[in-house]
UniProtKB/TrEMBL annotation:
Keyword field: Hydrolase, Membrane, Metalloprotease, Protease, Transmembrane, Transmembrane helix
Organism: Cohnella terricola
Protein name: CPBP family intramembrane metalloprotease
GO molecular function, one term: metallopeptidase activity
GO biological process, one term: proteolysis
Membrane-crossing residue ranges in chain numbering: 12-36, 242-266, 278-297, 317-342, 369-387, 456-477, 533-552
Keyword Membrane: yes
Phylogenetic placement of the source organism: Bacteria, Bacillati, Bacillota, Bacilli, Bacillales
Length: 562
């Protein structure tokens, strides 16, 4: 039976309450207070955006609904611009000056018209559905020269061309710049910090200047963007390069080595465990992630939007599913190898289904997981606040992880289970067990005797660091800057996760991890502006409890039958 039976005493409960207070004061109230003050508007659903786009092209482009073969809806966000506004605390200024006509976040609806190459992409304001930009995708990658003539006359003509689809020409002034992307115009509105708003208009090659009405949209584009200071753009480029290198050399390559080691130790320590260990959790991880991948196809598409390379939804799906299959295998061998390692060192951190007290252990782990999650949330809040004040850390947007890029946003809480299962089995159960085995073995060889209890504690503490560092490096690709912000945060958090596993067992720390993520996701859902997501956020909070109770009852029922 599991040797982790120490219940939570009042000190833990009071610490959890204090952690919850810190989390609410530091992370929740400032955001929700701003949201309520700003009177957040309803955000269109993906289906509403699609219907709005079809109505818009009928009105402004003369395209009938029956001529549309296919549509895609993708939430696109200008990550660098949102990062700039966040870093220099200019978001409120942006909201007042630019957000209505030039939002940083839009729904891009691609309409594939029968008989026409490429797609017509409409950029819609996510709150009111207003058309703010559009482009013929086929023309953007192979732009052809527009009508010839005097540049100033053509620049005026281009602005009139943009006006036919709703652009307010009074707000723009030609900069004198013409490129393959078209004519560039500067906004007459006041700048936000050092950021300057620009409009670009690409005239179709077939445009008839003498025509009183403008010809087809094919080959044309009306888009906008923000010119950010060169020093900030250079900073972001450097940060992204660091994030990519750290992800490859600090996470992906070590993960491959960890995979090989997990297979080896699963085999060499099979006498202490069973190869049935972790099968259910690994399969659950893959099934959940596979379903979420289908749910997040627009998010995968958003990831390649800025590069202009559309590899297709099917390729994105295959690459993602293969990756998650490999992660599921790593999770499985980590479960077997980790359980075997700890039992070989005299610790049983994971009860088995066949044990009489398994259901009660799950119920206790779920209950303890909530309290530990509150402690983790409080610690995370304090760490992030300290990093913000000391490093000037800030966050940018990431459309690949957006709620608005989910076909079914209410499925978001399932992602918490994927993270909790895989990361705790890999980084904590196997990772800490592996390095503890190595460190204790090295100490035994150096001293020629078994390490003392105090030495073993020190070595176990050191064993938390390498897998914690690897786990942290797996998160540096998130849109948080400087990139080492998350590195520092998660290395510190890994000590708490590791301590909790050693004291309460792996099931408790999985529930704690899942609950932590479920609460953060629930808060996100409650205030994302989508209909029904407030209730979905509340459901996210209680889902770990529901799962724990179901497993407890199921185990009891099956044991009674047997």
């Amino acid at each position: 039976m599991n040797d982790i039976t120490t219940p939570l005493d009042k000190r833990w409960i009071w610490t959890a309450a204090l952690g919850l207070v810190f989390f609410l004061i530091i992370q929740v109230f400032p955001v929700t207070g701003q949201l309520f003050t700003a009177n957040v508007q309803h955000v269109m659903t993906r289906s509403e955006a699609e219907n709005t786009a079809i109505a818009t092209v009928a009105e402004k482009f003369g395209i009938r609904a029956e001529d549309i073969d296919k549509t895609t809806v993708t939430h696109i966000s200008d990550s660098k611009t949102t990062g700039y506004f966040a870093k220099y605390e200019l978001t409120n200024d942006y909201d007042k000056k630019w957000s209505e006509a030039a939002p940083t976040d839009v729904y891009v609806v691609e309409l594939f018209i029968r008989g026409i190459k490429g797609a017509l992409a409409l950029s819609l304001n996510m709150e009111n559905g207003k058309l703010v930009a559009w482009q013929h995708i086929a023309a953007s990658s192979t732009a052809t020269a527009g009508p010839s003539g005097n540049s100033e006359e053509l620049a005026k003509l281009a602005l009139e061309y943009a006006a036919t689809r709703g652009i307010d020409t009074k707000q723009w002034e030609w900069t004198g710049i013409t490129s393959a992307k078209g004519f560039e115009y500067a906004s007459r509105q006041e700048s936000v910090g050092e950021a300057e708003l620009r409009l670009r208009v690409l005239l179709p090659a077939s445009l008839d200047k003498a025509s009183s009405s403008f010809p087809t949209w094919q080959g044309g584009a009306v888009t906008y963007g923000v010119n950010l200071p060169a020093d900030f753009m250079g900073y972001m480029k450097t940060q992204e390069r660091w994030a990519a290198n750290l992800s490859v050399f600090g996470f992906i390559l070590p993960q491959i080595i960890l995979f090989i080691l997990a297979i080896i130790y699963a085999g060499t320590h099979s006498g202490h465990t069973s190869f049935r260990r972790g099968i259910f959790l690994s399969v659950a991880f893959f099934v959940l992630y596979a379903g979420l991948t289908f749910n997040m196809i627009p998010g995968l598409r958003a990831g390649t939007w800025d590069s202009g390379v559309n590899i297709g939804d099917n390729v994105n799906l295959v690459v993602s599913l293969v990756t998650y299959a490999a992660m599921a295998l790593l999770t499985y061998f980590s479960a077997v190898g980790g359980d075997g390692l700890w039992k070989s060192m005299g610790r049983a951190l994971w009860p088995r289904w066949k044990e009489a007290g398994y259901g009660a252990a799950v119920l206790r782990s779920m209950r303890e997981g909530y309290f530990l999650a509150f402690i983790l949330l409080g610690a995370q809040s304090l760490i992030l606040l300290a990093l913000e004040k000391s490093l000037g850390s800030f966050s940018a947007s990431d459309a690949t992880q957006s709620m608005y890029n989910m076909s079914f946003p209410l499925l978001l809480p399932l992602l918490a289970w994927c993270a909790g299962i895989s990361e705790e089995l890999q980084s904590r159960l196997f990772g800490i067990g592996l390095f503890r085995k190595w460190f204790v073995g090295i100490a035994r060889k150096i001293t020629g005797k078994e390490p003392s209890g105090r030495t073993a504690i020190v070595l176990t503490t050191f064993a938390i660091v390498p897998p914690g560092l690897m786990w942290a490096l797996g998160h540096v690709g998130y849109a948080v800057y400087p990139v080492y912000t998350r590195l520092i945060e998660l290395v510190l958090m890994s000590f708490l996760f590791g301590w909790f596993m050693l004291r309460f067992g792996i099931m408790t720390v999985i529930f704690a991890h899942v609950t932590l993520d479920a609460i953060l996701m629930g808060i996100q859902m409650m205030f994302d502006g989508l209909p029904g997501d407030f209730a979905g956020g509340v459901f996210s909070f209680i889902l770990p409890g529901i799962v724990g109770i179901i497993i407890w009852r199921l185990h009891g029922a099956l044991r009674m039958r047997s």
